[in-house]
Design goal:
- One of its GO terms (cellular component) is lysosome.
- Keywords: Glycoprotein, Membrane, Transmembrane, Transmembrane helix.
- Helix 1 (3-20) crosses helix 10 (403-453) and helix 5 crosses helix 7 (164-172).
- This protein has helices at 3-20, 30-34, 52-56, 118-127, 131-144, 154-159, 164-172, 331-335, 344-347, 403-453, 458-468, 476-480, and strands spanning 40-49, 63-83, 88-99, 112-116, 149-153, 161-162, 179-180, 189-197, 209-212, 247-251, 256-268, 271-277, 308-309, 319-322, 350-353, 360-373, 388-400.
- A hairpin with a 4-residue loop joins strand 10 (247-251) and strand 11 (256-268).
- It has 2 domains: 1-28 and 403-498, no CATH class; 35-401, no CATH class.
- It is an alpha+beta fold.
- The chain is built from 12 helices and 17 strands.
- The strands form 3 sheets. Strands 1, 2, 3, 8, 9, 10, 11, 12, 13, 14, 15, 16 and 17 form a 13-stranded antiparallel sheet that branches.
């Protein structure tokens, strides 16, 4: 009996929010979806190898974390096109990076980092098993002076340098690029065409990815479940979030969808939020989570908990993704590298979402790039190496809602709350007015009866007048006000401050 008004109010609230939060021109969220106003920062932390010779002789590798090298990340969506009667929208997600010296530990053009020679290991993995091709690659590596480890500046590791080994390979294989960089060609570029649900038909579909690069499924993995494109791209979430639901995000960087679960309630700039974070099960081993078996490149190439081998979408290179410092991973990976120290507050990925609107109020996306180093047939020098997941660098992509956007969220929450509760307000007001009317009616009757049997005297009239002042009429000013009773003005959607 008590639930009906609450449900009616919730339905009204959802309807109002559905009209406000939709990826259609003119809506409150459309422009900020295309060009997000809050500043996004990308921090790069590198692991500098300090004992190369000792490691190659069989010792445990020792690394030192160097960073952050911080960049302001400018995001925007381009080539935005409405589809299927405004129920879908297509767009390309562009990113640009501008270096911020004041937020960084040093100059990326000067600071050197020694780590795994990624191009060399990529080439060796490509030709392993073939004696002839491996012999050719060994000769090329020798002539290029290319070893298992290399030293380059932060700028070179990130944005690219011409690699001597790749240049030799490219001479006979035109499809190979002689330039290598972890972020090569990613400054000012996009990650492919996305098609999103606008939320026009169903607000719970708002921001969900329908297709990426024209496909509704991936082809990298070995099961339908692993190849599914689930959820949003991480830039928009449906309103009315529930603590018990899983949030799904498709991320091209990992070439897969991941899920997040509710952790705790937080508050950012006065806005209530739910913190969602990826649980251990996301990167769990197939033994721990059988659903992850589809992420094994092959039965032999199936890593333990906390790791994802992304070689299928990295041209076969032995690249392994994890959380920084192997957070949430099997302890053996942490123990294998000197210098690893996983801590939740520094290495956890999380999203703080306002549950009513689905708006991101704060986020930290953290991921680590590792290389799988092992013995490779055809390369005798690798015989001394044990299988090692070697950390190269990790990123922290962070955002906190700006003050102007926070004010808009507060306003949206107020409008939706007021509009959804307005019928209840009217009912409540009606109840009060009815009570006042009954009291007045009762007093009028009482007064009428007294007139019949009492001769009015001046003192008695004065007393009645005093009692009658318990209800006073609205002032003349209020009578003239055409907006009387509407105590909040609903701002038009065109208002830039809305």
């Amino acid at each position: 009996m008590h639930h009906r008004p609450k449900n009616a109010s919730a339905c009204k609230m959802k309807k109002e929010m559905g009209a406000e939060i939709v990826l259609v021109e003119g809506s409150r969220v459309f422009e900020s979806w295309k060009s997000p106003p809050p500043p996004v920062y990308m921090e790069y932390f590198f692991f500098n190898m300090t004992n190369v010779d000792a490691f190659l002789a069989g010792a445990k590798p020792q690394v030192t974390q160097v960073g952050p090298y911080t960049y302001r990340e400018y995001r925007y969506k381009d080539n935005v096109s409405m589809l299927d009667n405004n129920t879908m929208v297509s767009a390309y997600n562009f990113k640009k990076f501008v270096f911020l010296r004041e937020k960084s530990v040093g100059d990326p053009a000067v600071d050197n980092i020694t780590t795994v020679n990624i191009p060399a290991w990529a080439v060796m993995n490509k030709v392993k098993g073939s004696f002839f091709r491996a012999s050719m690659a060994s000769m090329m590596m020798t002539s290029a002076g290319s070893g298992f480890f290399a030293t380059h500046t932060v700028d070179e590791w990130l944005w690219g340098y011409e690699d001597r080994l790749l240049a030799r390979v490219a001479a006979s294989s035109p499809d190979v690029d002689k330039v290598f960089g972890l972020m090569y060609k990613k400054n000012g570029s996009h990650s492919g065409e996305f098609v999103y649900h606008t939320g026009k038909q169903n607000s719970m579909e708002y921001g969900r990815v329908e297709t990426w690069k024209g496909e509704s499924k991936l082809t990298f993995w070995t099961s339908n479940q692993s190849n599914s494109i689930n959820g949003s791209d991480g830039s928009a979430f449906h309103p009315f979030l529930d603590k018990n639901e899983r949030i799904y995000i498709f991320t091209p960087d990992l070439c897969r969808s991941i899920h997040m679960e509710f952790e705790k309630e937080v508050e950012v700039k006065g806005i209530p939020a739910y913190r969602f974070t990826p649980p251990r099960s996301v990167f769990a081993s197939k033994e721990e989570n059988p659903a992850n078996e589809g992420f094994c490149v092959s039965p032999k190439e199936c890593l333990g908990t906390g790791l994802l081998k992304v070689s299928p979408c990295r041209k076969g290179a032995p690249v392994v993704a994890s959380f920084p410092h192997f957070y949430l991973a099997d302890k053996k990976y942490v123990a294998a590298i000197g210098g690893m120290s996983p801590k939740r507050e520094h290495h956890q990925t999380y999203l703080d979402l306002n549950p009513t609107t689905g708006v991101i109020v704060r986020a930290n996306k953290r991921a680590q790039i590792n290389m799988l180093i092992e013995r490779l047939s055809g390369f005798p020098k690798t015989k001394v190496l044990n299988e090692t997941i070697f950390p190269i660098m990790f990123i922290n992509e962070s955002v906190v809602i700006d003050d102007a956007s926070a004010a808009r969220v507060h306003k949206l929450l107020l409008i939706v709350t007021v509009v959804s509760n307005f019928p209840l307000f009217i009912v409540g007001l009606g109840g009060i007015m009815l009570l006042v009317f009954i009291v007045l009616l009762f007093r009028a009757r009482k007064q009428k009866n007294e007139v019949k049997r009492t001769v009015f005297t001046k003192p008695l009239y004065a007393t009645s007048n005093e009692e009658g002042t318990s209800y006073s009429p609205v002032s003349d000013k209020e009578k003239e006000d055409p907006q009387n009773g509407t105590y909040i003005s609903l701002t038009p959607k065109g208002d830039p401050e809305a």
